[in-house]
Design a protein that fits this description.
about 240 residues, alpha/beta, Rossmann fold, 2 domains, six-stranded mixed β-sheet, four-stranded antiparallel β-sheet
Length: about 240
């Protein structure tokens, strides 16, 4: 079943277009990667889906209903939750308090303890650090917390923007393993990532963006063997 469908999306800042006729789909249960170089428009795309930006034109359909132009908190209530680039935690609040903030909707508040148990099972170190200030965590632990906070909202679709940003190489593989675990627990993922090979290694399908346009799409295993992608993004 199609969970998210984007049709002919045009988006920009102060009337300057950044995304040009973007169209793509995410099926329920998939991990879909969107890859491309800096400045391709990947972050702008996620910000538009999550309601932080409103499109000039085009449609965003979630479970068949239009959400383009909807306010961000309404998008979250529909089941789309965004893990932003740079994590954007509350550094002077504890790990537990950051997690509680993630479960602000009525349904998420009602199931808060169940969600806490689930994220502590997924990220045991956060349970150990639950009373520690978020700003004192390591970079890897902060990314865990940002992801866990999003999961507290009980998303149907998790948008992840450059989750490997600032992480040591040894932590990047662990991060992508965690993405697979989240997907196996029933959450669909839309992953924006500059680590192209790692992202394609876990995604079912992928799209390649350049200068605000989708220029390639297909199954990840096929794209990994595409000579154009190898030359442009994998240095091969």
């Amino acid at each position: 079943m199609v969970l998210l469908e984007v049709k002919d999306l045009e988006v920009g800042y102060k009337r300057v277009p950044v995304l040009h006729g973007i169209s793509f789909q995410v099926q329920e249960g998939e991990i879909v990667a969107i890859v491309g170089s800096n400045g391709a428009g990947k972050t702008t795309l996620l910000r538009t889906i999550s309601g932080l930006l409103h499109p000039f034109s085009g449609k965003i359909l979630f479970q068949g209903a239009g959400i383009d132009g909807m306010e961000p908190h309404r998008v979250v209530e529909r089941g789309i939750v965004h893990v932003p680039e740079g994590r954007q935690l509350f550094p002077y609040l504890s790990v537990r308090q950051n997690l509680q903030i993630g479960s602000y909707s009525n349904e998420a508040r009602r199931r808060r303890q169940e969600s806490l148990d689930a994220v502590f099972d997924l990220f045991p170190v956060l349970h150990e650090r639950r009373n520690q200030l978020a700003g004192t965590l390591s970079g890897g632990e902060q990314q865990m917390l940002a992801t866990a906070r999003a999961l507290m909202a009980r998303p149907k679709l998790l948008l992840m923007d450059e989750p490997s940003w600032g992480l040591a190489p040894m932590l990047v593989r662990k991060l992508f393993d965690t993405c697979c675990q989240i997907n196996q627990r029933g959450c669909t993922l839309l992953l924006v990532e500059q680590h192209v090979q790692q992202a394609l290694s876990i995604a079912h399908r992928a799209y390649v963006m350049e200068r605000g346009c989708m220029v390639m799409e297909g199954k990840s295993k096929v794209l990994l063997e595409d000579p154009r992608l190898k030359e442009s993004y994998l240095g091969m």
